[in-house]
Specification:
binds S-adenosylmethionine, two-stranded antiparallel sheet, 13% strand, 497 residues
Length: 497
C-alpha cells in the first residue's frame, strides 16, 4: 500500500494498475459488461489512420509553437486537423471543455474554426495565454529582446522578494546556483521588459524548461528525483541523465522560439492549403475554471463540434506532475490541494462533488437536469457492476488503495454531468470526438469507452464509432501472468447529435 502523503520526498513509481489479483472466491461477474460490449461490438472499429503518436503530444515535438512546452497529456495538432477534415470539413464553432495546453483550440482555429476552451489547471491556461501572445507579437521586437537578454548576467538581478515559495514536493528541485539564475531572469523580465506580450513569452520560455534544469523527471503520477538532489532514494537510485544549466536551457528554448516565429507560414504547417490567414481568424476564447461549472453556461444547440480529451480514470495526478510549474506560477500548498479537488476526479484523493453539483444545479434552476443525470448514472448497469465488484475488493483487502472505488465512482458521476451538458449544447448534426483510455483495477477492466458511450446515447446522442488505436496500453507482468495478454483499449469516440 502506498501512502500519498509521504510521496513528497520519495522516488516513487507506482503502477497505474493495481497488481493484487483477486482469488476465485472474489472473481466477479462480467455479464453486464459483456452485454454492453455486444451492443457496441460493431461500432468498435480499428482506425489505421490513428496511432499513439498522433493521439499524444509526441507528434507535436517538431511542430512550431505546439512543441515549446511538453504538455504530455496533450494531443497533437495533426490529430485535430485529421478529425476535423474527416468529420466536419466546414468550419463552425468548436468547444474543448478540457482544453489543456490548447491543441484543439489552436489547431482548429488555424482551419478557420471559432474556438472556445475551458481549463482548470493554471499550467494549461498559462500555455494558452502564451500562444495568444504569439498571435499578437511583433516578431522582430521579440527577436531583439532575445538577443539582448542572452547577454544579461541573471544572477546579478536576483531579488529575494521574487524567490519561489516552494512546496514540499518541489523543495530542492534545482541547485541553488541555478535557481538564483532562474529568479534573476524572472526579475529582469518583469523589471526591464515593458511589452507585456514579449515579457510573457520570455517568462514562458523559462516555464518550459523547468524540468530540464531540475533534479526531477515527470514520471506517471509523481516527480521522480535524481540522486544528485540529495533526496532519499527508493530501492533503485535514479539518474535522469544530463541536467541543463539554466543558461544553456533558456538559450536553447529562446532560439527555438525565435526560429519557429520567423519561419514562413508555409513551413509552419503540413497542410498549408487549409490554413486560414491569421488576421481573418477569430481569436480563441479561453475560460479558467472547471467545466462542471462552465458547461451549464453555454446555450443549447450552439456548438458544432466538441473535440476533447478528459483526464483518464487512471490515478494520474496533474497537480503533482506539474508541481514545478505551479510553484513557478506562484501556487502554494493549499492552493495546489484545492486545485486537485477542483479537477475532474481521477486520483484516489478526490472527494465527491455531489453536494456542490446539486447546489449549483438548483441555483441555476436545473434541478430536473440534475435528477436526470443521476438517474442515468445510477442505471448504467455495467458501471454499477464494476463499482460493486470494486467495493467488494476493497472490503476484502484486494485493492492496494481503498479509495479506488471512490475514484471510479466519482469519475463516472462527473463525466455523466459533462456528457449531459455536451449533448445539450451541441447543435443537431453536431459531433463530439473524445480521446480516452480504458483502465483496469485488480484485474477488473473498466470499459470506459462503452460506459461513456452508453451515457451519451441516454442523453440523445448516437455513438457512431469507437475508433480504437493499434496498440493498447501495456499490462503489468503480473497481470499478464494471471489474465493472459489482454489489451486495454485506447480510443477516440465519435458521437453525433
Ligand atoms: C488529457 S488533458 C487534455 C489535453 C489537451 N487535449 C491538450 O491537447 O493539451 C485533460 C485536461 O483536463 C483538465 N481538467 C481536469 N479537470 C478539469 C475540469 N473540471 N474542468 C476543466 N478542465 C479540467 C486537466 O487540467 C488537463 O489539462
Amino acid at each position: 500500500m502506498f501512502d500519498l502523503s509521504s510521496a513528497s520526498n520519495a522516488t516513487v513509481k507506482i503502477d497505474l494498475v493495481d497488481d493484487v489479483i483477486p482469488t476465485s472466491a472474489t472473481k466477479a461477474s462480467r455479464v453486464k459488461r459483456e452485454t454492453l460490449f455486444n451492443r457496441f461490438r460493431d461500432r468498435l472499429i480499428h482506425n489505421p489512420s490513428l496511432d499513439r503518436t498522433l493521439v499524444s503530444f509526441q507528434a507535436n515535438k517538431q511542430t512550431p509553437f505546439y512543441g515549446w512546452f511538453k504538455y504530455r497529456e496533450g494531443f497533437s495538432r495533426q490529430l485535430v486537423q485529421y478529425l476535423l477534415k474527416e468529420l466536419m470539413p466546414q468550419p463552425g464553432v468548436l468547444l474543448d471543455p478540457f482544453a489543456g495546453a490548447g491543441s484543439a483550440l489552436f489547431a482548429a482555429n488555424e482551419l478557420g474554426w471559432e474556438t472556445q476552451g475551458f481549463e482548470v489547471l493554471p499550467v494549461g491556461i498559462y500555455a494558452m495565454q502564451a500562444r495568444l501572445a504569439v498571435e499578437r507579437i511583433d516578431v522582430k521586437a521579440f527577436q531583439e529582446a532575445v538577443a539582448q537578454i542572452l547577454f544579461v548576467d541573471f544572477a546579478e538581478h536576483y531579488d529575494e522578494q521574487f524567490a519561489f515559495k516552494h512546496i514540499a514536493i518541489t523543495s530542492g528541485a534545482y541547485s541553488q546556483a541555478e535557481e538564483r539564475q532562474l529568479i534573476g531572469y524572472i526579475v529582469f523580465c518583469k523589471r526591464h521588459v515593458s511589452n507585456l506580450d514579449i515579457q510573457h513569452l520570455l517568462l514562458y520560455a523559462a516555464f518550459c524548461i523547468l524540468e530540464d534544469i531540475s533534479y526531477t523527471r515527470k514520471d506517471g503520477q509523481y516527480l521522480r528525483w535524481d540522486a544528485r538532489s540529495g533526496r532519499a532514494q527508493g530501492k533503485k537510485s535514479f539518474n535522469k541523465g544530463y541536467i541543463f544549466s539554466f543558461r544553456e536551457a533558456i538559450s536553447n528554448k529562446l532560439n527555438q522560439m525565435v526560429n519557429d516565429l520567423i519561419v514562413q507560414p508555409n513551413q509552419r504547417s503540413l497542410s498549408q492549403e487549409d490554413i486560414i490567414e491569421q488576421a481573418s481568424r477569430p481569436t480563441p476564447i479561453i475560460s479558467t475554471g472547471s467545466c462542471l461549472k462552465l458547461l451549464p453556461t453555454i446555450p443549447d444547440n450552439s456548438v458544432n463540434f466538441v473535440l476533447t480529451s478528459p483526464p483518464y480514470a487512471n490515478r494520474y495526478d496533474y497537480t503533482r506532475t506539474y508541481a514545478l510549474e505551479l510553484v513557478y506560477l506562484g501556487y502554494g500548498n493549499e492552493e495546489v490541494k484545492q486545485l486537485r479537488q477542483d479537477m475532474l476526479s481521477c486520483t484516489v484523493e478526490n472527494r465527491d462533488k455531489r453536494t456542490q453539483l446539486h447546489e449549483y444545479y438548483t441555483q441555476i434552476g436545473r434541478d430536473a437536469n440534475f435528477r436526470r443525470i443521476e438517474e442515468v448514472f445510477n442505471h448504467q448497469e455495467a458501471l454499477q457492476e464494476v463499482l460493486s465488484i470494486l467495493d467488494t475488493y476493497r472490503d476484502t483487502g484486494v485493492l492496494n488503495n481503498s479509495n479506488i472505488p471512490r475514484l471510479v465512482r466519482n469519475y463516472f458521476y462527473e463525466m455523466c454531468f459533462v456528457i449531459h451538458e455536451l449533448a445539450r449544447l451541441l447543435q443537431p448534426g453536431g459531433i463530439i470526438a473524445m480521446v480516452n483510455d480504458n483502465v483496469r483495477y485488480a484485474g477488473e477492466e473498466v470499459p470506459v469507452d462503452l460506459i461513456l458511450s452508453d451515457m451519451a446515447e441516454k442523453f440523445g446522442l448516437t455513438a457512431r464509432y469507437i475508433w480504437t488505436l493499434g496498440r493498447g496500453k501495456g499490462n503489468s507482468s503480473q497481470q499478464m501472468g494471471n489474465h493472459g495478454r489482454t489489451e486495454l483499449r485506447k480510443c477516440v469516440y465519435i458521437w453525433e447529435k
